[in-house]
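Predict the 3D structure for this chain.
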Amino acid sequence: MSLAGRLEDLALSDIFQILSVGRKTGTFLVSGSKGTAVIVFKKGLIVRAETDDLDKNLGQNLVDMGLVKESVYGMSVSLKKELPGKSIAEILYELGSVSRDIIEKVARKRIERVIYRLLLWDTGDFQFELDDVAVDDKINLSDLGWELSKGLSPEYLLMEGARVYDEASQEFALSAEEMAIDDSDEISGWDDDWSTGEPDEKKDLGPLKSLTQELRFPSSASEITLLILRFASDIFQRGVIYMVGNNEMIGLGQFGLDIEKADQKVRELVLKLDESDFLRRMIIEQMTYRGAL
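Done. Predicted structure below.
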């Protein structure tokens, strides 16, 4: 599949959903008045993204965070002239100056930032080509960053991008403290409790009111799903949304699940209500449950 056009006619969010649902592998190129960008997809997930609309490259981000010495970065820039096919991050890794784990974490944050920046673009030409293309022949970017071993969900990036849309013009910044990511999936402090009463702590209803206004005139069913997931992500660390029928629940989307092919696996979920008293009671009685499943 080859896809080409202008952002004025087809929004970036719509393009991403097409490529994600179709589980496409290829390279998305975009060029406009604000700069140029390249996004690499593998089976519908984003594994690499770069744009010259950001002031610094991934290597400079590593220097700013104190993870790479300035002198070593300078060496990598010199080596890149002899190795134009490699990115600065790849050269730094091969020099042994930074671990793969650190690069992966910083690259994930940078890809998020690139996508948030692109969501601000409303004009420009785009092209998507299946499989790998010679990016250097198509688009002029001095550095192509780092390819993730585990791709990011376009739906998640769109959801997060919408949430931080108003902050997207701020400078990219990461502190070394942010790298101390707690990978624990344990959530403490939740009581096993069915409840139909008022929650103990009332949340600000502003975001919920804004959500209901946006849901009044949705352009598509997928927009409804994204809006609900975006709202839920402000409250919870992870979640899955289902469409409930008479006899079953079908997965529609997710956020925060750190598993391979999370979106695909969720969309393949079908839970039979007649096989679970737990789910059937929750739906019939419309009760909230907090606790272990």
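The longest strand covers residues 35-42.
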